[in-house]
């Protein structure tokens, strides 16, 4: 723990006792991204303490570490394979974009990460999903889902006040009902991080469904953040929004990646290029290419990627 | 290149020059769409539809107008505040306070039972519905109850509530015979009238909640029970209210169950002991109208008109409320 704090104080300079680091230089960016290898036992506090955050977005390197990993993950709907043998790493400090043509299994892959795919009776999964060195199957599913948040295509606030929406995930956790006073700081913090606080601070008791679409989507981000997830899954979060709201949400996502590992499914390649650090290209259930954004967009290794990405930018 | 006979089968082909009859056509210079080629049959059909619509309006206006005319003529304010008296002279036979209160009590008992039971059934059917065979059975049960004439429900209710172990719900005579008639027994049968309406409206409301809203709750680490309690039921609130209000309208207007299961006295007559009012007998506006109409024993059509007018106003108000509830408070996701 001391080591980690020292890290934070020293900023970018790695100390002598720091565990060995792999250095990856991404062609597209001027900043090297360092990947920390953590091989110790799972520590419940581990994910909560940002033990190295970058100060400024583009000035300092970002501490990147693995949060989730899939191993030979396959999902089939009643015999029809939607995702086949995907190995994927989800790192904190990064935005991972899943791209690919419609029906290639992006949503299915995303929904398997918080085991939401289990709600579909026909879905069968093989392979492993690891969250902080623990198989997600060993988690209590409600516990897992509060650690791996999700945002949907359509903004879907609940029909209650703005405050109650954000506090929704916090309530009924323990035996005692937390009071509004206790919840307030968490709610305010979540709204601030979602970039919505300034707009709603004076009307927290107003119905959430009266907000605009973009505000609703940011409220949904705040609602997810309130339960302090380690991973945030976003399934085409901007496809129902106007360009201005989309821009605000993109900014929010880029800011959030320092605290939460972000996986975003998007059909908008420009959007992926704007916000993603790492890109996974899927095609017919296969993970065709997985690499730093600059490489996937700039110098794709696979012909299919080239074709898809080229079409998007050409 | 050979042509596949099956796909190139001869048949009527769309002719780009001539539009299909009745199709909207954009004519240059007319600024809008014009109908072409209305056949005589279509014209007659349209006229018939118009006629039917207008006739319905006439019927509705006639009912309300006639009842209002009679009602205003015969209704006095003291009728609403005085109890009915057994008298052949209409000037001394009192008002219909008791029937008015009776309608209120019966309605409250009916929806009081129908709302929790109906919402429970609707939630089970839409959110669980497993095993599927049982769900189909429950659905058929709801349809049977909905389709049963209320006089049949009433007779059935009498049969049930006259069993000796049902004695607590009504009055038990010296010899041990159970009377079977009371606000409670009539109210429980009224609940069966309202139940299908509550179930239907609640199911519809639950169905209209998008799947991703449920999933958003699961994705926050909530289980099914708290999702139902904290997201689905609040979202369905206006649907539940709509169903309950429709049910109240039906209960207010039902006569058969009241005549069979609420006793013949026009006054509210509570029993002794705990919950005496509920175990007692009485009347409602419908049974009051029936009894005072020429087909009943009172033969006091003026009282019948006045009470019928009040009843009509109550039911119309309830219908109006349904429209209001349906429009407001219904959460809208895109
Ligand atoms: N509930 C389901 N039952 C059966 N098949 C499904 C189900 N959901 C998805 N599929 C199938 O799985 C495949 C992958 O679907 P998925 O929704 O993951 O694609 P996607 O990449 O998210 O597509 P899009 O970009 O259009 O959202 C598709 O072929 C789809 O038909
Ligand atoms: Mg999808």
Cα distance spanning the termini of chain B: 49 Å
The top level CATH class name of chain A: Alpha Beta
Encode the helix/strand succession of chain A as letters: HEEEEEHEEHEHHHHEHEHEEHH
CATH architecture of chain A: 3-Layer(aba) Sandwich
| Number of domain modules of chain A | 1
Number of domain units of chain B: 1
Bound molecules: adenosine-5'-triphosphate, magnesium ion
Question: If you consult CATH, what is the topology of chain B?
Answer: MetI-like fold
Number of extended strands of chain A: 12
CATH superfamily of chain A: P-loop containing nucleotide triphosphate hydrolases
Topology:
The complex is a heterodimer of chains A (314) and B (334).
Chain A: H1 2-10, E1 21-24, E2 33-36, E3 63-77, E4 80-92, E5 95-99, H2 106-113, E6 123-131, E7 134-135, H3 141-147, E8 148-151, H4 162-167, H5 180-193, H6 197-200, H7 213-226, E9 231-235, H8 243-256, E10 261-265, H9 269-275, E11 278-283, E12 286-292, H10 293-298, H11 303-313
Parallel strand pairs in A: 2-3, 5-10, 5-11, 8-9, 9-10
Antiparallel strand pairs in A: 1-2, 3-4, 3-6, 6-7, 11-12
Helix pairs in contact in A: 5-7, 7-8
Chain B: E1 24-26, E2 33-35, H1 40-74, H2 97-128, H3 132-147, H4 150-161, H5 183-207, H6 211-219, H7 224-235, H8 237-253, H9 256-261, H10 276-279, H11 285-292, H12 301-327
Helix pairs in contact in B: 1-12, 2-5, 2-8, 2-11, 3-5, 4-5, 5-8, 6-7, 8-12, 11-12
The complex binds adenosine-5'-triphosphate and magnesium ion.
What do you see in this structure?
The complex is a heterodimer of chains A (314) and B (334). With 314 residues, chain A is of the alpha/beta class. Chain A has one domain (2-313): Rossmann fold (3-Layer(aba) Sandwich), CATH 3.40.50. Chain A is 32% helix and 25% strand. Chain A has helices at 2-10, 106-113, 141-147, 162-167, 180-193, 197-200, 213-226, 243-256, 269-275, 293-298, 303-313; strands at 21-24, 33-36, 63-77, 80-92, 95-99, 123-131, 134-135, 148-151, 231-235, 261-265, 278-283, 286-292. In chain A, strands 1, 2, 3, 4, 6 and 7 form a 6-stranded mixed beta sheet that branches. A 6-stranded mixed beta sheet of chain A has the order 8-9-10-5-11-12, with helices on both faces. The radius of gyration of chain A is 19 Å and the shape is globular. With 334 residues, chain B is mostly helical. Chain B has a single domain (75-327), classed as Orthogonal Bundle (MetI-like fold). Chain B has a two-stranded antiparallel sheet with strand order 1-2. The longest helix of chain B has 35 residues, at 40-74. Chain B is globular and about 70 Å long. The two termini of chain B are 49 Å apart. The model of chain B is unreliable at 1-11 (pLDDT under 50). The interface between A and B is medium-sized, with 29 and 21 residues.
């Amino acid at each position: 723990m001391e080591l980690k704090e020292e890290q934070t104080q020293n900023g970018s300079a790695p100390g002598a006792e720091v565990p060995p680091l792999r250095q990856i230089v991404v062609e597209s960016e001027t900043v090297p991204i360092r990947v920390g290898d953590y091989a110790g036992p799972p520590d419940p506090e581990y994910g909560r303490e940002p033990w190295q955050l970058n100060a400024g977005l583009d000035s300092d390197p970002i501490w990147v570490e693995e949060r989730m990993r899939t191993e030979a993950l396959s999902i089939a709907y009643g015999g029809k394979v939607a995702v086949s043998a995907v190995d994927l790493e989800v790192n904190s400090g990064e935005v991972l974009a899943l791209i690919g043509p419609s029906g290639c299994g992006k949503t299915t892959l995303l929904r398997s990460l918080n085991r939401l795919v289990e709600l579909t009776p026909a879905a069968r999964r093989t392979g492993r999903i690891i969250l902080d060195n623990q198989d997600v199957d060993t988690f209590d599913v409600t516990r897992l889902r509060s650690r791996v948040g999700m945002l949907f295509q359509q903004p879907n606030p609940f029909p209650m006040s703005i405050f109650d929406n954000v506090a929704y995930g916090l309530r009924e956790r323990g035996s005692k009902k937390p009071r509004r006073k206790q919840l307030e700081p968490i709610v305010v913090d979540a709204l601030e991080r979602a970039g919505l606080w300034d707009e709603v601070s004076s009307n927290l008791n107003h119905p959430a469904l009266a907000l605009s679409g973009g505000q609703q989507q940011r409220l949904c981000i705040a609602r997810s953040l309130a339960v302090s997830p380690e991973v945030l899954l976003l399934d085409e979060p901007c496809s129902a929004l106007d360009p201005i709201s989309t821009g605000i949400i993109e900014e929010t996502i880029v800011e959030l990646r320092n605290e939460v590992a972000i996986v975003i499914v998007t059909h908008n390649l420009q959007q992926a290029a704007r916000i993603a650090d790492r890109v996974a290209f899927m095609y017919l259930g296969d993970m065709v290419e997985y690499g730093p954004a600059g490489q996937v967009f700039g110098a794709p290794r696979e012909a299919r990627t080239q074709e898809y990405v080229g079409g998007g930018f050409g | 290149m050979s042509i596949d006979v099956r796909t190139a089968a001869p048949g009527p082909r769309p002719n780009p020059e001539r539009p299909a009859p009745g199709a909207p056509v954009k004519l240059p210079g007319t600024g809008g769409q014009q109908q072409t080629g209305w056949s005589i049959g279509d014209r007659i059909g349209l006229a018939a539809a118009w006629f039917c619509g207008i006739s319905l309006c006439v019927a509705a206006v006639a009912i309300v107008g006639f009842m209002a005319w009679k009602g205003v003529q015969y209704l006095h304010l003291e009728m609403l505040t005085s109890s009915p008296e057994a008298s052949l002279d209409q000037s001394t036979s009192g008002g219909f306070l008791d029937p008015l209160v009776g309608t209120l009590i019966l309605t409250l008992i009916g929806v009081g039972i129908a709302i929790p039971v109906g919402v429970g059934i609707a939630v089970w059917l839409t959110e669980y519905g497993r095993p599927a065979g049982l769900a189909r059975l429950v659905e058929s049960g709801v349809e049977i109850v909905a389709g049963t004439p209320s006089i049949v429900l009433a007779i059935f209710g009498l049969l049930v509530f006259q069993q000796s172990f049902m004695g607590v719900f009504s009055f038990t005579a010296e010899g041990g015979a159970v009377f079977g008639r009371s606000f409670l027994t009539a109210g429980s049968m009224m609940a069966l009238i309202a139940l299908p309406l509550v179930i239907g409206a609640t199911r519809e409301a639950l169905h209209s909640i998008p799947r991703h809203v449920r999933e958003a709750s699961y994705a926050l680490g909530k289980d099914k029970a708290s999702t139902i309690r904290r997201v689905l039921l609040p979202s369905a609130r206006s649907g539940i209210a709509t169903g309950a209000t429709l049910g109240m309208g039906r209960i207010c207007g039902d006569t058969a169950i009241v005549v069979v299961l609420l006793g013949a006295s026009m006054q509210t007559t509570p029993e002794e002991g705990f919950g005496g009012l509920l175990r007692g007998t009485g009347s409602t506006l419908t049974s009051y109208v029936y009894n005072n109409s020429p087909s009943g024993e009172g033969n006091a059509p003026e009282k019948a008109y006045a009470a019928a007018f009040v009843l009509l106003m109550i039911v119309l108000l309830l219908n109006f409320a349904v429209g209001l509830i349906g429009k407001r408070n219904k959460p809208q996701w895109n």
